[in-house]
Predict the structure.
Amino acid sequence: MGYRVEKIRKHNKHTYSQMPSFFFNLDRSLKFEYGDEEYEQIKKIRRHSMVNYRNLATLYEHVIYLEKTGVEGALVECGVWKGGASALMALANLKHSEERRLIHLFDAFDNICEPDPNVDGMFIMDQVREVTGNPSIELKGRMKPIDGIYDKFGGPGTLEENKALFSSIGYPTSHLHFHKGWFQDTVKIASSGINKIALLRLDADLYHSTKICLENLYSKVVPNGIIIIDDYGTYEGCRSATDEFRQDNKITNFLNYSDAECRYWIK
Ligand SMILES: C[S@@+](CC[C@H](N)C(=O)[O-])C[C@H]1O[C@@H](n2cnc3c(N)ncnc32)[C@H](O)[C@@H]1O
């Protein structure tokens, strides 16, 4: 049996057990930095997203930029959970454009699959053990939902609640495409039916989940389109999948900070 030597990273991130109050509160201190419009729109989707206020506000501004500059293409999120971030993109489109965009939503609509100990690092393994309350849980990178992982957040996202959220904000169902299943089974097939992408948002925590989406969807992102990697600063698997992909494809576009966790670049 071999050994793996890993640097222990110190995370100043909140632990999962602290998350609900942290995530579900609106951060009023940032209202000044962003503005009333973002604040009011984020309020509508807040309970459907675990993304923090700053990253939601930046996402909203990203879509306004796409509308104002006329960047064509769909809005795509891989890792949707209860739909909050995707619905916020829809709200920005509804407010800032006469034309509805196609929105593609990829998710298992179930608990997340297992991290892979070979590529995802110790931090996420420990987090899964902590959240599930099961220190001896087997984590082998299998495509198998981890029981209880989202219990503290109100369970996994479902198709039904996603559809209800989009209906509540008045986005036309004709422009919504839900791709239910593991990315490993859905993304490649669906990508042939997606023409142009204006914004690609990856929020799937894990190495393989991030890599497969970049490999199959990045080429569809149009010039001046935006690629957001929500977990770049949080999970090392996500970060290395992104770094490898950028290196292999000679992508040197500056990786901007949305905050310490979330990064994006403009193609
Ligand atoms: C962090 S949550 C997404 C949060 C969401 N964007 C929001 O606004 O709160 C990650 C989601 O990605 C999904 N996911 C991760 N890897 C996946 C994979 N390989 N296939 C399908 N879904 C996956 C999980 O099931 C979960 O719903």
